[in-house]
C-alpha cells in the first residue's frame, strides 16, 4: 500500500497510526501542502484524489480517500486488533468522539479555511490564532466530557477515538492552545504516545519531515 501523506497533516497522521496499529507495512508518498502553491493541486495528484487533499491510500487496484473511511476499511479487512468496540452503544460513543475531532474541529482549522481567513478576509496572525484556539477549545470541552480515560479514551483498548485524538492534540500544541483545562485528554494523549504504533506515526519521524 502507498499512503499519500504530508508529515504535518493530522488526517494523514490518523491513517499512519491505524496502519501501524494493524501492523500493515506501507510506503509514504509525500505530497507537500505548501510548496509550489500546494502540490496537492498538481495534475498528477488531482488524478489520485480529485478533492486534492491528503491522505489517500493506494491499494493494488484502487485508491481510498478520507481518513475515517480509510481507517474503517482497514478495520473491516484487517479486524485484529479491532478499532471499534463490539457493543453498538460503545461503538457509537467512540465514533462520536472521533467525529467531533474529524468532522467538527479539524475542518475549521484546516489549511484551506485558514488561508481563506488570511488572504480573502485579511485576518492577521493574532486573529487566525484566536480562531484556531476557539474551535479546538470548544471541541475539546466536549471530548473531555465524553472520554473515560483508562488509560486510553475508552479504556484499555485503542480505538478510533484515540487515533483521532493524538493528531489533534499535536496540532493544538503546535498552535499553542493551552491544554491545562483538559487533564483527561492530556493523560490519554501521553499514554497513547508511549505505544510504538503511535510513536512511529508522529510527524517528526516521517520521511518528508522538515
Ligand atoms: N476529512 C478529510 C480531511 C483531509 C484534509 O483536509 N487534509 C488536509 C491536510 S490535514 C489537506 O490535504 N489540506 C489541503 C488543502 O486544504 O488544500 C480526512 O479526514 O481525510
Question: What's this entry about, in short?
Answer:
The protein is of the alpha+beta class. 52% of the residues lie in helices and 8% in strands. The chain has a 4-stranded mixed sheet with strand order 2-1-3-4, with helices on one face.
What brief labels describe this structure?
single chain, about 210 residues, alpha+beta, four-stranded mixed beta sheet, 4 strands, about 50% helix, about 10% strand, binds glutathione
What can you see in these coordinates?
This protein has 210 residues and is α+β, with helices and mostly antiparallel strands. The protein is built from nine helices and four strands; from the N terminus they run E-H-E-H-E-E-H-H-H-H-H-H-H. It has helices at 10-21, 43-48, 67-77, 88-105, 111-120, 125-146, 160-174, 183-193, 196-199; strands at residues 2-5, 27-30, 56-59, 62-65. Strands 2-1-3-4 form a four-stranded mixed β-sheet, covered by helices on one side. Helix 1 (10-21) packs parallel to helix 3, helix 1 packs antiparallel against helix 7 and helix 4 runs parallel beside helix 7 (160-174). The model has no long low-confidence stretch (mean pLDDT 97). The chain binds glutathione (GSH). Glutathione (GSH) is lined by residues 9-11, 33, 38, 40, 52-55, 66-68, 102, 110-112. Glutathione binds at residues 9-11, 33, 38, 40, 52-55, 66-68, 102, 110-112.
